[in-house]
Every structure is written in C-alpha cells, then in structure tokens.
Design brief:
Elements: E1 12-16, E2 26-31, E3 34-35, E4 38-39, E5 55-56, E6 61-65, E7 76-82, E8 92-97
Antiparallel strand pairs: 1-6, 2-7, 3-4, 5-6, 7-8
Amino acid sequence: MMSPIEIPVNRPTAVTVPVGDADGDTTRCRWSTSSNGIDECGGVCPPHSLPPNAIIYPNCTIIITGQTVDNWFAVAIMVEDFISPTSTTPLSAVPVQF
C-alpha cells in the first residue's frame, strides 16, 4: 500500500512510479481507460479522477498540480512492457492504482 502523496496547490508536482522488467524489456506507462466494455481503472478513470492538465509520461512520471486544499485524487495507470523501444504492441500490462 502506498502512502498519500501531498500535492501542493498551484505547484506542479512530479510523482515517479518505480517500474522494472525482469528480462529488461522496455516499459512504458499510460493512463488507464474504460472503453469497449473493458474497464482498466475501476471507476477512477482519468481525466475525471484527476485535476485538469495532469500529465503522464512514458517513463512513468506523472505531473499533477493541486487546485484546492484537502482534495484527494485517485490515480489509475497501466504499466506495459514492449519487446523494443519502437514497438507499439505491449507484451503484457499491469494496472496500478494509488
């Protein structure tokens, strides 16, 4: 279980999700989605679960800027591994929520 992360108001905050792959495949992160009857995020799909302009980078760094004091957010991402840096088809995907 991950502890809450403080996101200050009006200050972009970087949250880095540590990821690794046992056999050295390329890993990337993306927002979880819910479409075509597949719900990857259990009802906390971005963008509705996060403040506007939250960004996720493929290296699993998320930038979030808080808008109000004492607000809580749910983050739902997918961590995927790929055979090569240029591949677009994941070998596997693991959901992560915090």
